[in-house]
Amino acid sequence: MANIEQLYQHYLKHPVICTDTRLITSGCLFFALKGDKFDANEFAGKAIDAGAAFAVIDNPKFKENERFILVDDVLSALQELAKHHRKQLQIPVIGLTGSNGKTTTKELIRAVLAEHFEVFATKGNLNNHIGVPLSILSITPNIEIAVIEMGANHQKEIELLCSIAQPSHGLISNVGMAHLEGFGGFEGVKKGKAELYGYLSQSNGYAFVNAANKDLVEMLEKANVSQVVRYNVAEADSVSGILKHSDPLIDFAWSFNGKTHQAKANLTGTYNFENILAAIAIGCFFKLSPTEINKGLADYFPTNNRSQLTKTDKNTVICDFYNANPSSMAAAIVNLNSLTANHKVAILGDMFELGEESATQHQNIVALAAKHQIGALVFVGKHFAQVKEKFNAHFFATPAEAAAFIQTQDWKDALVLLKGSRGMALEQLLPLL
After folding, report:
1. Nearest by Cα to 98 from 182, 175, 210
2. What is the pTM of this model?
3. Are 254 and 359 members of one domain?
4. How is the chain split among helix, strand and coil, in percent rounded to 5?
5. Residues 95, 225: one domain?
6. Among 97, 159, 165, 297, which is least packed by CB within 10 angstroms?
């Protein structure tokens, strides 16, 4: 049975990790993880045949020769290997979590810091108990600073991810009505996200905190973090800002150490302003110049279907269909209402993982949208459909039904908000808009 030090020596010689036999690269290390419906031990031989240097397995019956490394549990081995690698890294690691905006904030931080440092940032959505160790193991010797996104839908998950990533610095973008089913309500969300503050308190790390967010300030005080960098507050040594314009892109001024700087970002949504300020605060902390910070912000263009402004042949679409929860949905509706357009359309899909709160939260969103000056309201999914008798709007059980309706509409020069939980797959509606 291989120990972590032995496994680490293999990793140093073969520093590319793969968990999918369809993505094998020559000389990689294949980790045979188990899923709900598969056991990758069965594919270890296929991985070797495809070019993997070694296959890490936990079922001895698949060990064909010395290139099959047997461990007690493959997932635990992957996580322990990442912990071991993290301990060798003498660089700042910024841990990032939050209910909304964490991926956009991560990308903004990466864009800013990349003006001065070699930066690694979590790719895609590799932010869970498998993705975080894979991210840590992707940090190469040339990297000077890392930004690790951490997602969770239950308590104790952030605590686990912190034990793997061992962040020296941390940021919670915000806390909202997300994953209520797993967290057990909003107070459970706060408790779960605050596990990052708890880790920073114990490790004497730095916490960046939006001082205008009362929930975050309360969570921080409870965790008793000693090293705190406050932003979004009018203090001489803190980053603050004024949003000048956000129709549709954000134009703002920010201040630090008594000096004010003008800047722009290629993002829509007033809700993204605090994410921008977080990236600026981190840039200032790591001593980037205002010029570097502004250039990083200006050079970032979202391409991940989060607050992404897309011009089609007929309309302008706010592509925000990577995920949704009541907090982010409400912010997107309010933002749509604030923007200038001849005609506005909101196409909103079901929000998942809300548990007992689901019916109430979906009804609240429909009621909120109905209050605003939005020309057409389209709701998609079985959860929204349950409240259709109470509102004058278009309701469809599936995206296919919504697509049939959209094809009957002559929407031109409209501003369209397309938002829903990832499982709704609303991207299939974009070609019709």
Report:
1. 175
2. 0.90
3. no
4. 40, 20, 35
5. yes
6. 159
